[in-house]
Amino acid sequence: MTRLELHGYRFSVYTRIVRMVLHEKGLEYAYREVDPFAETPDPALHPFGRVPSLRHGDAVLYETAAITRYLDAAFPEPVLMPPAPLAQARMMQVISIVDSYGYWPLVRQVFSHGVFRPLEGEVADAKELEAGLEAAKPVLQALDDIASEGLVLDPRRFTLACAHLAPMLDYFTRATEGAEMMGYYPQLLTWLYVTRERACFRDTLPDLGWPKFTP
Ligand SMILES: N[C@@H](CCC(=O)N[C@@H](CS)C(=O)NCC(=O)O)C(=O)O
Questions:
Q1: pLDDT at position 104 over 90
Q2: How many whole angstroms from 69 Cα to the centroid of ligand 1?
Q3: Is the dihedral of CA 8, 164, 203, 75 positive or negative?
Q4: Which fold has domain 4-74?
Q5: One Pfam family for this entry, by name (predicted)?
Q6: How far is the CA of 146 from the centre of ligand 1 (A)?
Q7: Which ligand 1 atom sits closest to the C-alpha of 62?
Q8: What is the position in ligand 1's atom list of the atom closest to the CA of 36?
Q9: Which in 55, 57, 129, 202 has the greatest CB count within 10 A?
């Protein structure tokens, strides 16, 4: 089989999304660690200096949603896209919500300033944490509405939307305030509980002895 090579960073939620999909597909891959905050990733792999990127033979891909769509199309089993057109659209909607409105407050504000920076001995800003918690509310509400509708974020069916959301909610809920807030979004919380038990989630947990999710 043509070799797959993932370039990523161990704390990166976007890298973990790709790793979860590779895991679900049962694919072997080489892994190269690149810390994009400390070094510039190879511009031939990512012209915007981020991770992840994926090499498959001669092809190079970056942008996580494109990578996961590619993996799902190129390696069809198990299928990670729902068959119905509306469910497919919802899946893309979740991915877009997560990228456009979720990543910054959930990860870069709440997780970074509430968990990561304090643990790493870096300066944390309580105002960033507060702003992130506020900005997270409409995101969680929109995702809870989608989970309640049941076309995607269905605990019984893992899709690319699940892979895109799980690493970010995992980080968000490692902050005490984030875990408490999740109680207001019961359908999303149910989905998270079930998804946390999947092998692709457990086997890609960043292993740092960080506090575990205990809402
Ligand atoms: N739109 C990109 C986002 C990737 C991204 O933001 N990755 C983060 C790590 S989780 C990164 O490389 N950050 C480095 C930086 O912001 O300089 C994707 O979908 O892959």
A1: yes
A2: 17
A3: negative
A4: Glutaredoxin (3.40.30)
A5: GST_N_3
A6: 25
A7: 20
A8: 14
A9: 129
- pLDDT value for 1: 77
In this structure, the residue with its CA closest to atom 11 of ligand 1 is 50
Spatial separation of the C-alpha atoms in residues 113 and 122, rounded to whole Å: 9
Residues with CB under 6 A from ligand 1: 9, 12-14, 36-37, 49-51, 63-65
Fold of 85-198: Glutathione S-transferase Yfyf (Class Pi); Chain A, domain 2 (1.20.1050)
Cα(38) to centroid(ligand 1), Å: 13
pLDDT at position 207 over 70: no
| Sign of the alpha-carbon dihedral angle for 123, 39, 98, 96 | positive
Cα(84) to centroid(ligand 1), Å: 30
Report the number of secondary-structure helices (H) and strands (E) in the chain. Answer: 10, 4
Q: What phi, psi does 45 have (nearest 5°)?
A: -100, -35
State the distance from the centre of ligand 1 to the C-alpha of 50, rounded, in angstroms.
5
Burial class (CB in 10 A: 0-12, 13-18, 19+), 19: buried
Give the model confidence (pLDDT) of 142-153 as tens digits.
999 999 999 999
Domain boundaries, the chain: 4-74, 85-198
Ligand 1 closest atom vs CA 52: 20
Mean pLDDT for all residues in the chain? 94
Q: Are 133 and 181 in contact (CB under 8 A)?
A: yes
